[in-house]
Design goal:
The structure is a single chain. The protein is mainly α and 468 residues long. It folds into two domains: 396 residues, Growth Hormone, Chain: A (Up-down Bundle); 56 residues. Helix content is 81%, strand content 0%. The protein contains 18 helices and no strands. Helix 10 runs antiparallel to helix 15. This is MFS transporter. It is found in: Cell membrane. Its main location: membrane.
């Protein structure tokens, strides 16, 4: 078990690195937007470009790792992510920054596609839930430190250090991984499904473009209609192509059994429900309460605290309680927290009421992630763990991509283009009573939509408990 826990420390460090990189930027986004004088479209793509590219390449790098070795791909991901972080801090314009976020996303995909599989290989089946609980709990630690760190850096050192802080951490992670991870056997040589990857990337790009523009341009805007149409056309094409592919990037067999199908769909719903939670809360504190980025970072701490507490507890319970039962309970807790936030959205709501909703939602996310991930990995067929885990993460990331786009679109549709631009930049001041009412209504609607998605995830988790 000593080697297993050393492996867990390596993979956990990688998860912390990526988690902090994302959560710090969520809080510091208004500072970046003001520096580049970016509009809502560019602001959205600073976040969404990472999610899109990361989503589209997870399965690809899972397959590559199966072929050339997980250790090699995993360590290369650290190197690429670190280099992109260094260059992002020197960005002369917003689109160069978006480009570096794309490179970061590729490196992160190489790390994420292999971290869970490396842990699964290192731990015996009866101890896997414990290792997974610690692994997922470290993401909560990253989210715990990230908002506060992001707010502090943005207010003191400047937004560039949001990216530069990743450089020394990435170097340490690369060195520790190289010293710890053993070389793993490679799988049989198989071709990569280039056509499938290209189609998935194009379909997700079109869908995301439609979502990101819907709030500001309207549902009838040509770009929104075109994006939705491209996605609608490509979706059935992907199904047909992947059914005929010898080694598909999206293996239809993954949807054949109820357990894996429902578990992955539940993971998709839970990712949608939780992904925008910290972003919406940070925007709320800065736009509605008028606080700075550092104070907003402190305000969202109940979410990662809840996740950090729930993840290891759920991992310990996984040996005695069905992980899927824990996943159902976690999804219901997430829904309860989001419902509380929707009901209490208001400019004068006391912080303790908001904090309770954030904490409950965080606990639910931690419980769900640990329970769901453990049972999905235990149910995986042997031989292609990298591909199947990459698919699992891709499904989750699709939920994240849609969540950010959907939540921001719902918010922007409620407040209008001019007010929406001020929300992104955190520069609201002296709002009229009507403006305040529109803003609060937008936050309430966004949380209500996410609550409904969380409830759907709970129902799917319940179905996933039954085997074929």
């Amino acid at each position: 078990m000593r080697y297993a826990w050393r492996v867990c420390s390596v993979t956990s460090l990688g998860l912390v690195l990526i988690g902090i990189a994302g959560s710090t930027l969520n809080v510091a986004l208004p500072s970046v937007v003001r520096h580049f004088r970016a509009g809502p479209f560019e602001s959205g793509w600073i976040l969404l470009s990472f999610l899109l590219v990361n989503t589209a390449t997870l399965v690809f790098f899972g397959r590559v790792a199966d072929l050339v070795g997980r250790r090699e791909v995993y360590l290369a991901g650290f190197a690429l992510f670190t280099a992109a972080s260094l260059l992002a801090g020197f960005a002369p314009g917003v689109w160069f920054l978006v480009a570096m976020r794309v490179v970061q996303a590729v490196g992160a995909a190489m790390i994420l596609a292999n971290g869970t599989v490396i842990i699964t290989d290192a731990f015996p089946p009866d101890r896997l839930s414990q290792g997974m609980g610690v692994y997922i709990g470290t993401l909560s630690v990253a989210q715990l430190a990230g908002p506060t760190l992001g707010g502090l850096i943005a207010e003191t050192a400047g937004w560039q250090w949001i990216f530069w802080v990743n450089v020394p951490a990435g170097i340490v992670a690369l060195a520790w991984g190289a010293m710890t991870l053993r070389r793993m056997p490679r799988g049989p040589r198989q071709p990569v499904d280039a056509l499938g990857n290209a189609l998935v990337f194009a379909a997700l790009s079109a869908l995301l473009l439609a979502l990101s523009e819907a709030g500001s341009a309207g549902l009838t805007a040509p770009v929104v209609i075109a994006g939705a149409a491209v996605f609608a056309v490509l979706a059935p094409v992907i199904v047909l192509v992947e059914r005929r592919a010898a080694h598909p990037v999206l293996d239809p067999r993954l949807f054949g059994g109820r357990l894996l199908a429902c578990a992955n769909l539940a993971s998709f719903c839970n990712a949608m429900a939780r992904a925008s939670l910290i972003l919406l809360a940070a925007l709320y504190f800065q736009a509605a309460r008028g606080v700075d980025a550092f104070t907003a970072g402190l305000g969202v701490l109940p979410v990662p605290v809840g996740m950090a507490l729930a993840s290891p507890v759920t991992g310990a319970l996984g040996r005695r309680v069905s992980p899927y039962a824990l996943a159902v309970g976690g999804a219901l807790m997430s829904a309860a927290g989001l419902a509380a936030l929707a009901l209490t959205a208001g400019a004068g709501t006391p912080y303790w009421a908001i904090g309770v909703g954030l904490f409950v939602a965080g606990c639910g996310s931690g419980a769900f992630l640990t329970g769901n991930t453990t049972h999905v990995m235990q149910a995986l067929p042997g031989g292609s763990l990298g591909v199947v885990n990459g698919f699992r993460l891709m499904v989750m990331n699709v939920g994240v991509v849609l969540s950010v786009g959907l939540a921001l679109s719902v918010l922007a549709a409620s407040v209008g283009p001019s007010l929406g631009a001020q929300v992104y930049a955190g520069t609201l001041s002296e709002l009229s009573p009507v403006g305040v009412e529109r803003l609060m209504d937008g936050f309430a609607r966004a949380y209500t939509v996410l609550c409904g998605v969380a409830l759907l995830g709970a129902a799917l988790s319940a179905l996933a408990r039954s085997r074929d």
